Amino acid sequence: MIKKTLCLLLLPIAAWAAKLPEQLAVPGGIVKIAVGKRIDKAPKVFYHDNRVLVTQDGEDWLAMVGIPLSADPGQHRITVVHDNHKDAKTFNVANKDYPAQRLTITKKRMVTGFTEEDLKRINADKIAMTKAKAVWSERPIAADFIAPVDGRLSSLFGLKRFFNDIPKRPHNGLDIAAPTGTPILAPAAGKVIDTGNYYFNGNTVFLDHGQGLLSAYLHMNEIKVKPGDWVEQGDELGSVGETGRVTGPHLHWIVYLNKATVDPALFISQDIARLDARNKK
């Protein structure tokens, strides 16, 4: 059942503790950096001018930085802004060579030969999705994720993709294959930012889990929530489908941190082996 409540906004500071994703300092990964003591006010943190999530970790404030897939290996920097001063902290990003994946798309206009109307829709979609991805809410995060669908791990994050032998952007999410109609569940509590039917992504839902931690659910058959709804972990968002640019029914699941797409597997590492095991049956 969808719950519309602002109760999380009233939680005391001690409730900011959350189960956090694994750290992986590579493009598309996450770095966690201590940025102050919790006896002090939480600082504001920025990475490439984007605000960074800050949460409680024991007696410290911890910045959780999403590393873009486009990030170069080497030293990177965050800016930490306190009430009366600011400083910088650095971290290193290692190289990761993601493998290639080649897919055949039978709907040719999902790859090339776009009409003028197609291009108008694609551009309008970009504007709507950019607005959704820019949402920031000052509230405790919900980062203790469960897998959003019970299915088979079908495509990993970060793959270099070729559609009909044409190079496209790297895979920015995790694909879980399941029959059409399989329920898609909220992996953690959050607010529905937006829903829509997009040219490439099909039926899509965006969720806000707090402080720039966002998630998106693509290619859905049916959407069962609307913008502004509050969902708890396990609430049904809709069902698996094959709308948009697909090769079969599946959920394409995206997680954003400070506007960067990061590997959703880092949030459900305890469940990846179970989903992947279904590829061997």
TrEMBL record:
<dbReference type="InterPro" id="IPR011055">
    <property type="entry name" value="Dup_hybrid_motif"/>
</dbReference>
<feature type="signal peptide">
    <location>
        <begin position="1"/>
        <end position="17"/>
    </location>
</feature>
<dbReference type="InterPro" id="IPR040487">
    <property type="entry name" value="Peptidase_M23_N"/>
</dbReference>
<dbReference type="Pfam" id="PF18421">
    <property type="entry name" value="Peptidase_M23_N"/>
</dbReference>
<dbReference type="InterPro" id="IPR016047">
    <property type="entry name" value="M23ase_b-sheet_dom"/>
</dbReference>
<keyword id="KW-0732">Signal</keyword>
<dbReference type="Pfam" id="PF01551">
    <property type="entry name" value="Peptidase_M23"/>
</dbReference>
<dbReference type="GO" id="GO:0004222">
    <property type="term" value="F:metalloendopeptidase activity"/>
</dbReference>
<feature type="domain" description="M23ase beta-sheet core">
    <location>
        <begin position="170"/>
        <end position="264"/>
    </location>
</feature>
<feature type="domain" description="Peptidase family M23 N-terminal">
    <location>
        <begin position="25"/>
        <end position="96"/>
    </location>
</feature>
<dbReference type="InterPro" id="IPR050570">
    <property type="entry name" value="Cell_wall_metabolism_enzyme"/>
</dbReference>
<protein>
    <submittedName>
        <fullName>Peptidoglycan DD-metalloendopeptidase family protein</fullName>
    </submittedName>
</protein>
